Amino acid sequence: MLKICADIGGTKTIVGVIDQDLSVIDSQKFETDVDHPEVEFTKIINIANEFSKKYNNVAQSTLNIAMPGPCDYTEGLFLNPPNLQKYVGFNAGDFIKAQSAFQPHFVNDTDAAILAEYQYLNSDLEDVIYLTISTGIGMAYIRNGQLVTGIDGNFGEIGHTIIKNNSDYQCPVCHQFGCVENELSGLAISRKASDILQRAVSTREAIDIYMNNENENISRMMNEVVLLTQQLCTNLFNIFNIYHIILGGGVTQSALPYKANIEAYAQKHHLIQNKPFHIKVSNLAENVLTGLYYVNEQ
Questions:
Q1: pLDDT number for residue 82
Q2: Peptide bond before residue 70 is cis, with ω within 30 degrees of 0
Q3: Would you call 39 helix, strand, or coil by DSSP?
Q4: Residue 80 confidence class, pLDDT cut points 50, 70, 90
Q5: Alpha-carbon distances of 71 from 63, 76, 109, 199, 232, rounded to whole Å
Q6: Which PANTHER family match (predicted)?
Q7: Quick one: pLDDT at residue 225?
Q8: What are the residues facing 13 on neighbouring strands?
Q9: Which residues on adjacent β-strands are paired with residue 191?
Q10: Residue 297 confidence class, pLDDT cut points 50, 70, 90
C-alpha cells in the first residue's frame, strides 16, 4: 500500500508517495509559502489529489504531514513555529478536512525522521535519540521501541532550552539568551560568521573557513559551537540514560567531526565510564518524508 505524505519545512515543502519499503515513488517539491498558510495547504491538497488519481494502490484518504513545532499535532494546529510565525493559530486539520476528502495525521518533523531511522538500525536497539542540526534544532526519542510524543506531540522541543548562560544574543521567538537553536544551528553558525566577517556568510562557507583554518575568529566561534554540541549530547546521554544518538540535518552532513568529538567528550565526562557512547550520522535521504509512512500506525 502506498501513502501520500508531506514534509513542511521553513524553506521548502515536499509532497511524496511512499511505499512500505520507505522508498519515494513520486514527489513534488515547492518553496514553502511562509506568509500564507491557506495557499501552502491548498498546494499540498492539490498535489495529493493528483497522486491519489495517478496511483491505484494508494491509501485514498490518508495524508500524513510533518510540521515544524511547536504545534498541537492531535489537531494540526500551529502554536508557535519559529520559522513560520504567520502560521500561528492556523488549524491545518480543519482546513484540510473542509477542503478535501483526506483524513490528515500530523507529527513533528523530527518524530517522522526517527521513525525512518529506526527501521534501518542494524541491531535490536530499543532506546535511541534523534537530534537534527539544520536550520533549527530538534529532537525525537524512541523508548522501548515506541515513539515518545508527549501530551500534544511536542516532546523533545530542545531547541529553546538554554545551553550558553553568558550569550549576548536574544532569541526572537523564546526571548531567552543562549538557547540551543540560536547557538548551535546552521542559522546560528551563519549569523555568527556574518557578524565576525561583516558580510553575509552561509553556514557552508563558515564551516569551510573553519575546516581550512582560514580565520582565527571563525575558528574560535566554531570551536565553541562544537563544544556546546558535545555538551548538549552528553546532557542527553545523562538525562535519558541512553547510549545511542543519531545525528541528522544538513549541518551534520558537513565536514565537522561530530561523531568522534562527541563520543570522546561523553566518554571523558559522563559518570558511567565503562560503556561506549555511540553517535551515528544519518545517511538516509528524505528521512522525514519517508518516516511519515508509519505515522498513523503509532
A1: 82
A2: yes
A3: helix
A4: confident
A5: 17, 7, 11, 34, 24
A6: BIFUNCTIONAL UDP-N-ACETYLGLUCOSAMINE 2-EPIMERASE_N-ACETYLMANNOSAMINE KINASE (PTHR18964:SF149), ROK (REPRESSOR, ORF, KINASE) FAMILY (PTHR18964)
A7: 97
A8: 8, 30
A9: none
A10: low
